[in-house]
Amino acid sequence: MHNVAILAFEDVAFFELGCAVELFALPRPGVEDWYQCDLVSFTPGPLTTTSGFQICARQVDNLDAFSTLVIPSWPTQLTDIPVPIAAAVTRFYEQGKRVLSLCSGAFLLAELGLLEGRQATTHWRYGEKFKSRYPGVDYQDDVLYVYDGQIGCSAGSSAAIDLCLEVIRDDYGYKVANRMARGMVLSAHRKGGQAQFAETPVPENNSQFNNAIDWALQNLDKTIDINLFAQKASMSRRTFDRKFRADFNITPKEWLTHQRLNLAKEILENQNYSIEKVAALSGFDNAATMRHHFRKEFGITPTLHRKNFSPLVNGIMVGDSTP
């Protein structure tokens, strides 16, 4: 049995708190030994969140009854950590129990010295502040999350969901985690090392550049030469590459691969086509190339993704013997 404590305090971030509650506290009929979860506080309530809403939490003086602690956020400015929280979180860590920090929650762990010499991340907005304040932490720029089995740190907002799903995947397996992701209308698996950018981010206003993006999205199943892609945006190749890097933090080729993988996932989840046909429809040279990129990006094969995530298909397609 996994007993989860979600730490609440005055001005806790409401979104990340809600993510933790959604993923760990809601009942999941059909999942054996699902998490037992409590919203806990070391001070009496009610507590006011960053959104102005008031919440009530179970007041505790220790965390001994729990095996996982979720810290939804923490102030990024230097403040004194309440002694009961500092003592309880440190003891929790020293007992080898699992600690998850979401968004700015990493600041609490770092201030307590629990991240010294370990990998960590937080929202990109706080990255420079974090690195200058905690030079002994192996800070990971521009990743969704890091998780080593005991400590997990996520970037901001939706990355908190990705970290929580990774933990659920660890505890209950792919099928359960993927079913939850599907229920939340999310990608089945975004790896922690993926950059902190939206799957199809919106570039700054530039009609020709936007038109080029639209053209590429409409022609993913075809061969797209990057020079032609740049011409569609009425830019030189060098300017186009710089624009892409500035807006998306990746190269045009990487962006195309990412969009083709998204298209492949959509086809896998909604059509009964063979893996070879899925590869062709999503613009990959062949099935082997698609499998390579799919496994690298999502950590599973296209066939396993379909098996776990599609309501239409259960098993490997006839004529597609290679997973």
Describe this structure in words.
Helices cover 43% and strands 11% of the residues. It is of the alpha/beta class. It has 2 domains: 3-183, 3-Layer(aba) Sandwich (Rossmann fold); 201-323, Orthogonal Bundle (Arc Repressor Mutant, subunit A), CATH 1.10.10. It has a 7-stranded mixed sheet, sandwiched between helices. A two-stranded antiparallel sheet has the order 3-4. The protein has a two-stranded parallel ribbon with strand order 8-9. Strand 6, helix 2 (83-94) and strand 7 form a beta-alpha-beta unit. The longest helix is centred in the C-terminal third of the chain and has 19 residues, at 252-270. The two termini are 33 Å apart.
What are the main properties of this structure?
11 strands, two-stranded antiparallel sheet, Rossmann fold, alpha/beta, 2 domains, 7-stranded mixed β-sheet, 323 residues, disordered C terminus, 13 helices, Arc Repressor Mutant, subunit A
